[in-house]
Write a structure and sequence with these properties.
It contains 9 helices and 8 strands. It is mostly helical. It has a domain at 3-183. The strands form 3 sheets. A 3-stranded antiparallel sheet has the order 1-2-3, with no helix packed on it. Strands 4-5-6 form a 3-stranded antiparallel sheet, covered by helices on one side. It has a two-stranded antiparallel sheet with strand order 7-8. The protein is elongated.
């Protein structure tokens, strides 16, 4: 890469970064106003465009040609004239990972994809925004943007000022999210709380067959949750007898345990295994001398004896 290419890439990166932070700040200001659906729509639209420019700013630092939709048609004349089709968001993220070598984790990819879908619906179709879900999404994507700038060394004196302003405007939003989560954790401390696939908050209450999010009010399907979270086989629950909702998973604390996504039973310290006679999953009591036989089979064996 020539010195001129380096200079051009640096100038382009700074321009895109500046434009991106302007949009992110506009999104933060909009959601901070909290004046109903209009401010939420404005926040989603500005945030979606700001994230896209942020990713392009990073790949442009690698080389200016990477922001062209067709790299083979990239030229400095087209770049200077602004006469070209730029890479779309999904391919920009792919180039960020495959060419620049900056992977975006699965959790962040989920949030960015959801934001992109929400923005596209607002741009091209009629869409209704759920207040709690949208605020959660904005908070999480904003957190990604700030972290991305810091980790990728994209902060400048001007960028730092804008990032500080973004933080200031997002404080009420984060307080809203934190307050809701604290109340939910306190009110449902005896139930299993899981991360909601709709708003991504740890507010999905799994208790006695009812599975619904106390943050965004969405209901979830236990079968789908089990399929998404299963690390291995999916079993019928030995506690509530609901089929295909009992899974073996790795929790955040590093412990493996069985959990049912219908009744919420299971947990660490409980030893579940298949019955050696009928193959049914059951709780293995400590007094069985290592022989795992379910209660039905125990009753059958005793009666036959």
């Amino acid at each position: 890469m020539s010195r001129n290419s380096n200079d051009q890439s640096e100038r382009l990166q700074l321009t895109l970064l500046d434009d991106s932070l302007d949009l992110l700040l506009s999104a933060a200001e909009a959601v901070s106003r909290d004046d109903g659906p209009r401010s939420l729509k404005e926040a989603v639209l500005h945030l979606g465009n700001g994230v896209e420019l942020l990713v392009k700013a990073r790949i442009a630092r690698e080389h200016w040609s990477l922001i062209f939709a067709d790299v083979d048609k990239a030229s400095r004349d087209k770049l200077d004239a602004g006469d070209f089709a730029s890479v779309d968001a999904p391919r920009a993220l792919n180039r960020l990972e495959q060419i620049v070598g900056v992977p975006i984790g699965g959790r962040w990819n989920t949030h960015l994809k959801s934001l992109r879908q929400q923005r596209n619906r607002l741009t091209h179709f009629t869409a209704t925004l759920d207040t709690a879900q949208t605020k959660s999404l904005v908070a999480k994507v904003m957190a990604f943007c700030v972290s991305f700038c810091e980790q990728q060394g994209m902060a400048t004196a001007r960028a730092d000022d804008k990032l500080s302003a973004i933080h200031k405007n997002l404080t009420p939003l984060q307080e809203f999210v934190d307050h809701r989560i604290q109340n939910i954790s306190a009110n449902w401390k005896d139930a299993l709380l899981w991360v909601c696939p709709e708003c991504w908050q740890p507010a999905l209450v799994i208790d006695g067959g009812e599975v619904d999010c106390k943050f965004c009010k969405r209901k979830a399907d236990p079968l789908e949750l089990a399929a998404v979270n299963a690390e291995g086989s999916i079993e019928d629950c030995p506690e509530c007898d609901v089929e295909q909702t009992f899974v073996y998973i790795l929790r955040h604390n590093g412990a493996w345990e069985w959990l049912c996504f219908s009744c919420g039973q299971g947990g660490a310290g409980k030893n579940y295994d298949h019955c050696m006679r009928c193959g049914r999953m059951d709780y293995a009591h400590d007094d069985n001398d290592g022989i795992q036989v379910c209660e039905e089979c125990q009753t059958y064996i005793i009666e036959r004896w």
